[in-house]
Amino acid sequence: MNRPVTAEQVIPRLAVDDDLHGAEADEGEPPTQHPLGEQPRAPMKRSDRHDPLLPRPPERTITASMQVRPARPKDLPAVSRLAAELVRLHHRLDPPRFMLVEPIEEGYQWFLSREIKRKGALILVAEDEGTIIGYAYATLEPRNWNDLLDACGKLNDVYVDPAARRKGAGRALVKETLAQLRARGAPRVVLLTAWKNPDAHAFFESLGYRRTMLEMTTEL
Question: Where are the domains of the chain?
Fold first, then answer.
């Protein structure tokens, strides 16, 4: 039988776009350790650009049955299953860089069950007809001298079930995350996204994000 992993073994990763065909300091309890993913992509390929002679794809619209709301404890098993898929996606992109420690679902649920109670953390879900189809996880971060980064919000995870994409869930999750972090006093929100996920880069740029840093890795 596999033993549940600890929070230190869980590696939430930012952030895979949900709607693209194919995205995360409390005054009291210190934040649980949460290592993050990678960063910007290679230049967009010509095939990725819109051809002005062709009609643009229809705008994504939020369905009447879908809502974005704060996560509840009973949502965490479904959220953890989505989070585990996000971890596995990153591991497939670059196995040496993105660790994978199973069972991911149990470890993530342990981690999120603590974060959901913390004032400096935010977990949102997208729900459609009673089913959790996506989630976002963000935190308030203190000043970080190593990164030359002042206190800010951080979007750590955003993911939508592939079967539920193209409904606007990811866009709605990110927009609500930004609104809530702004209401909590964050002057800006940063995120990390895997280099080999150009769809996610384009998605975040369409929501106003700009490229600011690039993580690089070498094996020893």
Answer: 7-39+63-206
Q: How far is CA 165 from CA 18, 142, 150, 197, 216, in A?
A: 6, 33, 34, 16, 30
What confidence tens digit (pLDDT) does each residue in 169-202 have?
Answer: 999 999 999 999 999 999 999 999 999 999 999 9
> Which helix or strand (DSSP H or E) is residue 66 part of?
strand 66-70
Each residue's pLDDT tens digit, 134-175 = 999 999 999 999 999 999 999 999 999 999 998 899 999 999
CA distance 90 to 203: 17
Q: Which fold has domain 7-39+63-206?
A: Aminopeptidase (3.40.630)
Specify the 3-state DSSP secondary structure of 152: strand
- Residue 64 has a pLDDT of 74
Question: Which positions ≥6 away from 191 have C-beta within 8 Å?
Answer: 14, 15, 23, 24, 154, 155, 156, 204, 209
Q: CA torsion sign, 189 to 190 to 193 to 198?
A: positive
Residue pair 148/42 in contact (Cβ under 8 Å)? The answer is no
How many CA atoms, within 13 angstroms, populate the side-chain half-sphere of residue 168? 14
Contact 91, 100 (CB under 8 A): yes
